[in-house]
Structure formats: C-alpha cells, structure tokens
Amino acid sequence: MSRKFTPKVVTANDLRMGDVVYMTAAGSWTRDHAEAELIEDEAHGELRLLAALGQPGIVVGPYLAEARAGANGPEPVHFREVFRTRGPSNYPHGKQEAAHV
Amino acid sequence: MYKYSDFDEAFVRERAAQFRGQVERRLSGALTEDEFRPLRLMNGLYLQLHAYMLRVAIPYGTLRADQMRQLAHIAETWDKGYGHFTTRQNIQFNWPKLPDVPDIIDALADVQMHAIQTSGNTIRNVTTDAFAGAAADEIADPRPVAELIRQWSTDHAEFQFLPRKFKIAITGSADDRAVIRAHDVGLQIVEKDGETGLRVFVGGGLGRTPMVGQELRAFLPKADLLPYLEAIVSTYNLMGRRDNKYKARIKITVFENGIDAFRAATEEEFARIRPSFEGVDQAMLREIEAQFALPDFEAAPVEFYERALEVDPLFRAWAGQNLTAHRRADHAIVTVSLKAHGQTPGDASASQMRVLADIAERYGYGELRISHEQNVVLPHLRKADLPAIHAQLLRAGLATANVGLLSDIIACPGMDYCALATARSIPVAQELATHFRKIGLEEEIGALKIKISGCINACGHHHVGHIGILGLDRAGVENYQITLGGDAGPATTIGERAGPGFAYDEVVPAIERILRAYLALRSDRAESFIEAFRRLGPAPFKEALYGEARDAA
C-alpha cells in the first residue's frame, strides 16, 4: 500500500543567480514560498515536476518539497526548507535580506 | 615563495578561458546541467543551499600579501564582502552568481591562483602544517615537496577520474599539525642516518567510516616520492571500488584488502615504474626548493617586546595564547584567530583580509598562511614589532586571544550553506563560544579542541575533536551526537560516541555538564581535558551527560 500523498511545492535553484525559487500555479517561478502552488495530488505533482525539469535554462535541480497550507499561502514543513526560505543564520543574507520574509 | 612558471601561467589561463566558454554555453542552453555539473565541479563551483559557492585553492595554505588583497577584492566585488577559510586550507565564497564566476576565475589567475581540483574525484589541494618553514621543531619545510606534488597531480591524466576524491597532507614536524593520519595519504618528513626521507601513511580519513591512516613505509627516500605516490594512487585507481560511493575511498580499499596486500601491490607497481623517473622530478624539486628559501630575517632586539609583556595585560594574554616558537629566538609565529566570540569560525571580512595583507607586507616578509583550524597565520614576525601589530589587529577585531581554547572551534558551514548538511554547525559554535565567555569558564578550562560537523561527511573533523559534535536530522528535527576523546595530533584518535544525541537547544548545556565534570575531576590545573579523559576514561563524562536525565526518567 502506498503512503498517503502529503502536499508539496516544486522548488529549485535559479540557474543564473543560484537562489531558491518556487513554481507558481501559472508555471512561472517566484522567490516567495507563499506564492508557490500547493500541490495536493500526486499525479499533478509529477506533472509539475516534469514541467520544471523541462526548464533547464532557468532552474537547476527541481524537486518536490513537503509543504502545508498556511494563512498567507504554502509554508515549508522540514527545517531545511524553512532555512531555504530565509537564508543562513549567521548573517542577514539570502532571502531574509529582502523585505518579503 | 613559489611563483608560477610560464607553464603554470599558461595552463591556468587556458583553463580559465575554457571555463568561461563552458559557462557561456550553459547560460545559452547549449549545455545541460548534467553536462555542465562535472565541468563546474572541476573548477570548484558548487551549487549550495542558497547560492553557488566557489572553492578556491590555497596550495598548502600559503598566501602572499597581494593574493590576500585580491581575495578581499573578489569578496567585495562579486560576493558579500567576506570569505570563509576551510579545514582544507582553502577559501570559499558563498554568494557568487554564475555569470560572474569567469571574471572571478580571471581575477584569481591575475595573482596566480585558481579553483582547479578543489572538487571532483581527483587529487585535491595538498595541505600542510600552517607553521611550515617557521616552526622551531621541524626537520624541513614540507612546502617544496607539497608544491612538487601539486605540479605532479594537477591535470595528471591518469588521476582525473579516481574512484573518489583523494587528499594528501604532509608535515615536516613530528608534532603533527596537519592531521596527516586523517588523510588518504599522509607524509611525514623524517631523518635516518643523516638522510631526509618520508614516512608514508595510507588509508586515513574521517567521514562516515572514520579510520586512522596506517604506515605503508617507515622510510621512503625523498627521490622515490613521486613514483611511490604514483604507485599508491594507481593501485587505488585499479583496486578501489566504484560500485558504492560510500566504499570508494582508499581507506576502504586498504581496510578490505588489508594493509599487507595493498602494500604488496603498491611496491610491485613502484618497482615497475621507478626506472621511468629519471631525475627530472628531482631537478624540479631543487628549483622549487630554491623558491622557498627563507626570507632574509632581520635581527631585532626583544627588550621592547618583553617590556610590553610586563606592562600590557591585554598584549600579554594575547601573546600567551596566540604565539608559537619560531626557528629564530627574535621572531615569533602569530596565529590570528578568526574565532572572535559569536563570529563564524573561519570567516574574514574583506577589510580584515586587507589588514592582514598590510601587516604581512610591512612586518612579515609578505607571507601569510591559512591553518586547517581555520585561522590565519603570520609565520615570520619580529618580536619587536608585535606590540604594534597587536594594536592593529585589535582595531580590526582580529586580536581574540583564544587559540587552542574552547572557542577556537572548527565548524563546517553546515546547513546554513551546505546542500549536503543534515543540521546547522555555525550557530552551535557561536553559542558555545559566547556562553562559556559569559560564564567565565573558558580560561579556567584551558586547552580544548571542540570540532563540529553538520553531517556525517565530517568536514568539521568532529571525530578528532576532544569533544566532537555531529549534527543530524532525526525525524525532521536537528539532533546532535557528541563524541569524546578524539585527537588530531600525532597520536591520532577517533573519538567515541557518548550516547544518544541532543536537541539543538540542549547542546550547550550538555557540553557544559561535560566540562564541569572535567573541572571537578582534573588532578590539577595543568591536566587538560583530553589528559583527564585519557586517565579517567569516558564513564564520568557520560555520567555527567546522561546521569541527570536517567535519574529524572
């Protein structure tokens, strides 16, 4: 028996800048986790991942990361993904440098 | 210090031009990521958690002042104004953007530096004692041999696709400051009957299967070094496993086949290829040795230095902790701590790099070193100049008097940067340093090596820390295992796991319990933590760690 599918977002790193990006419902890329498409169906998730893999000129290493619905949009679940929405803890660099986190 | 030959210069420029073309083709879509990845890794470019990371080689940890200034320039122009010095004596830039990397590589080439073979399954940067050429206790400066190995291994056609990465370290002193027995090959310069040779260790390494290197040859004549190394790496290239990444390092090859079988195969290959080395390498070594001639040391009276020790307690504390005996009595080796309490171990800002370059140029014969303990070393300073130098370091935030103490922690970048990490390392190091300063116990505890890795690959050398901390992911939560009794010195020892791990916010209190037990149990102030641990064994420290929890349960 397969395990119950848990919600996901498609995430990757930007090819040029190297920073963390997420796929929106429109199929574009955003820097903001809350703007990502929350994928609740396994088959749809696979299709979205395939769509991401088909954009090697824009992103590197796309994968499905666990997420959950939050008040302002999808939120990360695992601490690694939480760090990816912020940046390192020793300097205010990365996404936390910008206003949107 | 070594200056590039025309051959080196042409090679590095050609590689820089090739990489520029590769980046252009990746950006245009002509190369896929699968095609580009091995090419960027051959040039030290990783894609990490939040950004690309460029790892620049600092061969055997030796830098000139102009090179340090160029690293500062790169940090300010293409990164976020700082660099991170690593346990492999390299520097990493954490925020380069892919289109800028070819310009960075060109800027490195302008000062005879590069990022070649800082990644991939090749022979990596050869590391050595940060005090090489300056230490009072060394038999010979190991850097000419390290440079010979660099030239031999760079772009060596046979060794570009080894089963796994390959790390060589060399020391010229019996007091091993290069952790040679935790390397794939460790070399120690030794003397026998007036002849200089090498003691060769093989099969050391940390990572998920930590092993201490075993002696392969007690005495190898210096002239046999390259053919012997070539025989070792060739033997490994054929005998090493390629079916399982986790069993591909030479330590597993040696372990599975046994040191005797590995030695027999190496010696057979050595006998076969030795005649083809007709002395060109030795002629090259002599040329290299001439370039590592010691600076023309300027004699200077030490009275002013001694007077400063008497009257200035801050200077005295710093000198007591951060100086090492130089081969000349009127000089000293200074270790500049990159471990200010609460700062990131191994990080230096661009302005700090410039201060260090200026000091090296004005007072230090232009030489700098990066230590595997992530500090900067000024190897040749006149004692007479030290009060003035200390004042300059103070103004730059570089005068922390903690070398060899609790807060002089090795920490890998961990999950603040690294894509492989399973937990954070840096904030654990920061909190340990600030906590023990706050409670005023750091000096009381004295000599102690804490080393922190954010994953099983052990870049933070936790296995050989007196206290090692390993960050793991346990069911989606950061969890830290503690190891005790490791040692990175000549008696290399792998620490043993104390027991179950601790949550992120339990680590500092756990370390405090261990160290309060040490303070209560040590025979006197002169007995260091590791000496007390060796005398008492792990039991009282485990009791301190877990006793309380066990009682509460």
UniProtKB/TrEMBL annotation, chain A:
Highest taxon listed in the record's lineage: Bacteria
- Which InterPro entries has this protein been placed in? DUF2849 (IPR021270)
The name on file for this protein is DUF2849 domain-containing protein
What is the organism of origin for this protein?
Paenirhodobacter hankyongi
Automatic annotation (TrEMBL), chain B:
Domain spans labelled Nitrite/sulphite reductase 4Fe-4S: 119-271, 409-544
**This protein's UniProt keywords:** 4Fe-4S, Heme, Iron, Iron-sulfur, Metal-binding, Oxidoreductase
Q: What terms describe the molecular function in GO for this protein?
A: 4 iron, 4 sulfur cluster binding; heme binding; metal ion binding; oxidoreductase activity
The record's section on InterPro entries has: NIR_SIR_4Fe-4S, NiRdtase/SiRdtase_haem-b_fer, Nit/Sulf_reduc_fer-like_dom_sf, NO2/SO3_Rdtase_4Fe4S_dom, NO2/SO3_Rdtase_4Fe4S_sf
Q: What Pfam families does UniProt report for this protein, alphabetically?
A: NIR_SIR (PF01077), NIR_SIR_ferr (PF03460)
Gene3D superfamilies (alphabetical): 3.90.480.20, Sulfite Reductase Hemoprotein, domain 1 (3.30.413.10), Sulfite Reductase Hemoprotein,Domain 2 (3.90.480.10)
Stretches assigned to the Nitrite/Sulfite reductase ferredoxin-like domain: 52-110, 342-394
Q: Which PANTHER family match?
A: BLR3264 PROTEIN (PTHR32439:SF9), FERREDOXIN--NITRITE REDUCTASE, CHLOROPLASTIC (PTHR32439)
Q: What is this protein called?
A: Nitrite/sulfite reductase
For this protein's source organism, the top of the classification is: Bacteria, Pseudomonadati, Pseudomonadota, Alphaproteobacteria, Rhodobacterales
